[in-house]
Design a protein that fits this description.
Elements (H helix, E strand, L loop, with lengths): L12 H15 L8 E3 L6 E4 L9 H9 L7 E5 L3 H12 L3 E7 L4 H9 L3 E5 L3 H14 L3 E3 L5 H17 L5 E5 L4 H13 L4 E7 L4 H8 L26 H8 L2 E5 L1 H15 L5 H12 L9 E5 L6 H8 L2
Parallel strand pairs: 2-10, 3-4, 3-6, 4-5, 7-8, 7-10, 8-9
Antiparallel strand pairs: 1-2
C-alpha cells in the first residue's frame, strides 16, 4: 500500500532537520561540543564556537561535506579564511587533496594557517565572490569536487548541528542571534530550531558595512551592496552567489535583521574579552553587538548569541582590547 506521508519540501526546516540529524551522526566524534555560558551582566547565553576546532563553526560544515567523499578525491573551495581552514583540516583527516582559493584581501594570519595544513592555496585578486567564482570555474574545468562555503546542503547541515546542541542544553529558547554572511550558519541552526521549536525568533545580524543578505531579502532577490566597504566582520563580508540555496531559506526563516556599526562590533569584541577572557573575531562580535542593542529583547527571555569564531588578526585584536 502506498504511503500517505508527504515528503518535506526541499529547503524547508523539516527537510534540513533530517539532513542535520544525519550530519550529527557523521561528525559528532570529530567536533567539540562547545560551551554554552550565560553572561551575568546581559543575561545572554553565549554559544562559544570560537572554541571549536580550527577556531570557528566552519569546521562542522567542512566535516559534514567531506565525510561523504571518497578517499583520495580532489576538492576545491574558496574562502576568506575560516571555511578554508575547516576544509583543509577535514581534507587531511579524510585523506583528500584540497585546493583553497582565497581573495588577496583575506586576513594574512588565516591564509598562513591554511598553508600550514598542507593544502594548496591559490590567491585571487578581488573580494570573496571573485575567489568563489575562480574556484568554482577551476573545479568545473578539472572535474573536481566543489565545496561551497555556504551554497551546499551538506555544509548547511553541518552548521545546523549547533542548533541540535542548543536544544540539548536549554529547555527553552526564545530568541537566537546569528551573524549572516553567505547564510549557511543561520540556515542550518534556524532550520533545526524552527522545526523543533516553532516559537523561536530568528534574528539575522550583519554589519552596516556589508549587509548583502539583508538587502537581498528586502529586494526579494539576490543583490549586491551598492558600495563595498571594509568591516571587522571579514568572515561574513562579501556578496552572495545568485543561485544560492541559502537566500530562499533566509528569506523565509529570518524574522528580522539587526545591523551594527563597526564601533559596536569593536565594543562587543572588547566586552567578551573583559568579561570572559575570550578572543572572538569580528563576525562573532556582530551577533553579540546586535543582541546588546536589541530593544525588543526582554530580560526574562532566554536569548542565545552564537559566537561563530575566534580567528581574528592578532594586531587588530590587541588594538581593540588594548592588550
Amino acid at each position: 500500500m502506498a504511503s500517505n506521508t508527504v515528503p518535506p519540501s526541499v529547503n524547508s526546516p523539516e527537510y534540513f532537520s533530517k539532513l542535520i540529524d544525519a550530519a550529527n551522526i557523521r561528525i559528532e566524534k570529530y567536533t567539540e561540543k562547545t560551551r554554552l555560558i550565560q553572561d551575568s551582566k546581559t543575561g545572554l547565553w553565549l554559544k562559544c564556537e570560537n572554541e571549536q576546532y580550527t577556531g570557528s563553526f566552519k569546521w562542522r560544515g567542512a566535516l559534514s561535506k567531506l565525510s561523504t567523499l571518497t578517499e583520495g578525491q580532489e576538492i576545491v573551495t574558496a574562502s576568506t579564511g575560516n571555511h578554508g581552514l575547516g576544509v583543509a583540516n577535514a581534507a587531511r583527516l579524510f585523506d583528500l587533496k584540497a585546493k583553497i582559493f582565497v581573495p588577496t584581501s583575506a586576513v594574512r594570519e588565516k591564509i598562513d594557517k591554511i598553508k600550514l595544513t598542507g593544502a594548496e592555496v591559490i590567491e585571487v585578486n578581488g573580494d570573496s565572490l571573485s575567489a568563489e567564482l575562480a574556484g568554482k570555474k577551476y573545479a568545473q574545468e578539472h572535474s573536481m569536487v566543489w565545496v561551497s562555503p555556504y551554497n551546499d546542503e551538506l555544509v548547511i547541515a553541518g552548521q545546523g548541528t549547533i542548533g541540535y546542541e542548543l536544544e540539548q542544553a536549554l529547555p527553552r529558547i526564545d530568541r537566537v542571534y546569528i551573524t549572516v554572511g553567505g547564510g549557511g550558519l543561520i540556515s542550518g541552526i534556524a532550520s533545526w530550531l524552527r522545526y523543533h521549536h516553532p516559537q523561536v525568533e530568528i534574528v539575522g545580524c550583519q554589519p552596516v558595512n556589508s549587509p548583502e543578505m539583508y538587502l537581498s531579502v528586502q529586494a526579494g532577490k539576490v543583490v549586491m551592496a551598492p558600495e563595498a566597504m571594509d568591516t571587522l566582520s571579514d568572515g561574513s563580508a562579501g556578496p552572495l552567489e545568485e543561485d544560492s540555496i541559502t537566500y530562499p531559506v533566509c528569506a523565509s526563516i529570518i524574522d528580522r535583521f539587526i545591523l551594527v556599526t563597526e564601533e559596536e562590533i569593536r565594543s562587543a569584541i572588547r566586552y567578551v574579552y573583559q568579561e570572559h577572557k575570550m578572543k572572538v573575531e569580528g563576525a562573532a562580535g556582530v551577533a553579540l553587538a546586535a543582541a546588546m542593542k536589541d530593544e525588543q529583547r526582554k530580560s526574562e527571555e532566554i536569548s542565545v548569541v552564537v559566537l561563530c569564531g575566534g580567528n581574528i588578526d592578532a594586531l587588530v585584536w590587541k588594538e581593540i582590547v588594548k592588550y
